[in-house]
Design goal:
mainly alpha; single chain; 250 residues
């Protein structure tokens, strides 16, 4: 695709700008900022990845993965600011997910140990884990706030913090995993996933593209499960003090 052709795709930016102005949605500024940021960020990442791919150095690969984890952590922690130590809990979860998924993929030689495979796959899995972490924290904090009286009743009757928070924790884990599970039920029928579509557009054999997409969706199931469960079980103990009383998360 030439830059001239790419510039014509800005028509897709003009349409929401016109509609926002016409309907007085007041989204023009946010739309322009989002567009400019996406252009700058993606072009910058494109040149960085070209350098990393050409160098094919494990040091650069680790640096890129570490940068993804840091940015994802800083973004996801906003939904759990009332949970003590939420930053390192999210970071640890993302590191474990990266180790587990890449350990399987590289350990069994499913994909080559090169930057061309490690970085894009890591980006998809870490990005998905970040979204799931946000979904979990948003639902978990809402569950705690709305069922605080029930939790205090369980504690007053001699229940442990784990017993008091069990239902809220399970509900939050389920809620954060549902989008991943439901989207995979209709994959290929309702939508053609990004990785598969990109490979097909790039000229890859459709069957080969499907194989790689299956690799990703299977790995996404692991990220969905580990993200919610790890953050949940790392977070709930700090919601209570030493006298087993619920702390204010504000």
């Amino acid at each position: 695709m030439t830059f001239t052709a790419l510039s014509l795709t800005l028509i897709f930016v003009c349409i929401p700008l016109i509609l926002s102005k016409t309907l007085k949605l007041d989204l023009e500024k946010d739309t322009l900022i989002a567009t400019l940021r996406s252009i700058v960020q993606l072009l910058a990442v494109g040149y960085i990845l070209k350098f990393v791919f050409d160098a094919n150095s494990y040091g650069y690969i680790l640096l890129m993965v570490a940068l993804m984890i840091v940015v994802a952590t800083l973004n996801a922690r906003k939904k759990g600011v009332g949970i003590k130590g939420i930053t390192w809990k999210i970071a640890l979860t993302l590191v474990v997910i990266e180790i587990v998924t890449q350990g399987v993929l590289l350990g069994f030689h499913i994909v080559p140990a090169t930057a061309q495979y490690i970085i894009p796959i890591s980006g998809m899995l870490i990005g998905n884990s970040m979204v799931l972490s946000i979904l979990f924290l948003n639902r978990f904090t809402a569950e705690i706030s709305s069922h605080k009286d029930q939790m205090e009743l369980i504690l007053s009757l001699g229940g442990t913090p784990k017993q008091a928070v069990h239902r809220q924790l399970i509900n939050a884990v389920k809620a954060s995993m549902i989008p991943t599970i439901e989207s995979q039920k209709t994959i290929g029928l309702v939508q053609l996933p990004g990785m598969m579509s990109g490979q097909i557009i790039g000229g890859a054999d459709p069957i080969h593209a499907v194989q790689f997409q299956l690799l990703i969706i299977f790995a996404l199931l692991t990220t969905a499960t580990l993200s919610s469960i790890m953050i949940g079980f790392l977070s709930y103990p700090v919601l209570f003090n030493e006298r087993m009383q619920i702390l204010d998360m504000k």
